[in-house]
What does this fold into?
Amino acid sequence: MVGLGFMVELATGRSDWLAPTLMGASPESPSLLPFWLGAWAIAWMPALVPADFAVRLPFALLLTIALFATWYGTYYLARSPLAQPVAFAFGGEALPADYARAMADAGLLAFIACLGLAQLSHETTPALAQLAFATLLYYALSAIPYRRRAPLIAALIGLVGLTLSGAPALATLFGLGGAAIHLLDRSHEAPMSTKPQCIPVESALIVVSTAMVVALATALNLWSWKLDLPSARWEDLNGIAQLLLWFTWPAWPLVLWTLWRWRHQLFARQINRHIALPAWFCVVTVAASLLTGRSDRTLLLGLPAMATLAAFALPTLTRQVSALIDWFTLLFFSTCGLIIWVIWIAIQTGTPAQPAANVARLAPGFVASFSWWTFAIAIIATLSWGWLVKWRVGAHRAAIWKSLVLPSGGAALCWLLLMTLWMPLLNYGQSYTTVVRRAVAQLDVSGCAETLGLAQGQIAAFQFYGRLKLKSFGASPSCPWLLAEPGPELATPEGVDLSAWTRHAVARHPVDGNGSVLIFKRN
It folds into this structure.
C-alpha cells in the first residue's frame, strides 16, 4: 500500500521523481526505480485499468526475471569443470550441458520451494525489485566464463538496478566479491569454455561498473547506513533462528550438506566457482539481514544462491534421505492444504463449528462469499497436487531434481489455495479497505481531511481508496475533518484541541486494534 501511494504521487505529478514523497514524507528505504516502474505502468496503461492492478504488471515481470536468472545462473555454475560429475571408466555419464540443465531445473525448483519467497515475491515493493536485479547480477557473474557481452550488460543492469532499488551497499559487495572470485578462478580456462579468455579485463570491468554505481548512489543520496545489531536476549536470538529456519526452508539443510561435502575444496588453492560465488551471496545477505534490521526482505536476495547450493547437494543424497524429504514434504503440505480447505468449508457452511467460531472471533463482521471461478482454480490445484504425488511415487525414469518436485509443488499449492479460497478473508483482515470504507461513511460531502499520526500505508489507502484530499494537521487552508491515530485505549491523541474539534466517530479495524482511526469534526 505504501508503494502504491508513492507510485500514484509520481504518476499524478505531485512528487519529484528524484525524491519521491507521500504528503511530504520520504520512503523508509531510499529507493527510486521500483516507484518509477509503478508510476510508468499507471501512466501508460489505459484509464480503464485500475492503478492498483497496473502497478503489479512490472513487478510480475521482475519476478519472471528472477526465475529465469536463477535457472541460468545455476546452469552456468553447473557447467564449471569442477562441478561436473566424475567421468565413468567406460563412459555413459551425462553430457556436461545435460547435467547442467538438470541442475538448473533443481535450482529453480529449490528457489520456488523456499517459503520466504511466497509473500514478498508477490508484493509491489522495492524488495522484489532488489531480488530481480540481484539475481540478474548473480547470473552475470555465473555466466561470464562462457559469454562476455550479455553477462557484462546484465552485470551493469543488475548493479544499477540494485542500487536504484535501495541497496547500493549490497550491490557494491556483490560486485567486488564477484569480480574477485572471477579473477581468482582458473577452472573456466578448460576447453569447455567457448570464448577467448580475458579474465583481468572482465574483472576490471565489473569493478569499474561497481565504482560507477557507488558514484550514482552518492549523487542521488541513496546510501542508508542503519546498523541494528541483534541483542543477546533469548527472544531476539530465537526470532533470528526461526527466521533462518522457515524463511529459507527447504534449501538450508541442503545448503549445509553441500558445504559439508565440499569442505575440503572451499579453501583450496584453486577456487571452486560454483561453490564460492553462491556462498558469497549467501554470506552477504545473511550478514546484512542480521545487521540492518530488515531481516526477511534482505534475506530474500540470498534465496537464488541458496537454491543453487541446494541443487548441488542432490547428486550426493542417498535414497533414504531423498525418501525422508519426500515423506516430510508430502505430510507437511498435504496437512497445510487440508487445513486451508477445512477452514474455508467452515466459513462457507459453519461446519465444522470450531473453525467457524475461530474465524468469527478473529475477524468479527466478516461475511463469507462464494466464487465459482476461484473455487474451480482451487479444485484444479488440489487435483494437480494429487497427480504430482502420484507421479513422484510412481515408476518412472529417475531425475536428479526429483527430490525438489514435492517441496516446490506443495509451496505453490498452498499459496494458490490461500490466494483463492482465503483471499476475501485475508483482504478483510489485512488490508486498509474496511477502515477506509467505515471512515469515509462518517464524512459529509467534503473530501478534505487533515491527518495526525497516520502511517504511510493508511495515508495512501485514504488517498487512493477513499478519494480524500489529505493535508497535514494544522495546514492552511484548514479542512473540516481530522483523521488521527488514537492513543492508548482509543484516547484522544496529544495536540488535538477539543475546543476546536469534536470527536465524531471511530473507524475500527476489524482485526488489528492498532489500525483504528479516530475521526474529528471541526467546530
User: Anything to note?
Assistant: The chain has 22 helices and five strands. The chain has four domains: 1-27+37-47, 55-316, 319-430, 433-522. The two ends are 32 Å apart (CA to CA).
